[in-house]
Amino acid sequence: MTMADKNDNGIKARVVLQQCLHARLQVKPPDAETDAEWVEINRGMVIYICFFKGATEDIIPKMVTTLLNMKLCETATGKYTSVLELPGSVLIVPQATLGGKPKGRGMQYHGNIGKDEGLKLYGSFVSQCQSELFACKKSETVIEVKHGTYGNRQVLKLDTNGPYTHLIEF
Question: What is the pTM of this model?
């Protein structure tokens, strides 16, 4: 693998996790004939995700296991638990801007993966999150994995019980 195949730090993906009480993401803007389309979740976690050059399918299982088992969701007793143990829902938001680096007064995104490769990895990540969450379903509580549209700008509305936000790199 050459330096052109990976970013400066060898990072393949960057993720920001945010616990939430409710999140609503616009996945299609309104046009002349139709209203905007939204997906939403209740209690759980929002995952913002960006893949870098050099990322491959083999990183996805580790990412899914790490993220879904991270104890970031606050229980009624004040302890933290994973979204799998809540059980809670997950909203996955593709976020290419996580790969930006400052240059002058602007940002550059030269380290981000190409759109076609990123779309494939994003689809695999969403699918594996769905499989993992549903395999661990512990009760009749509604749990969902919702996701944004890769490559599109989207509007997010988020209610949290604190800015409990974490950055994780793979």
Answer: 0.89
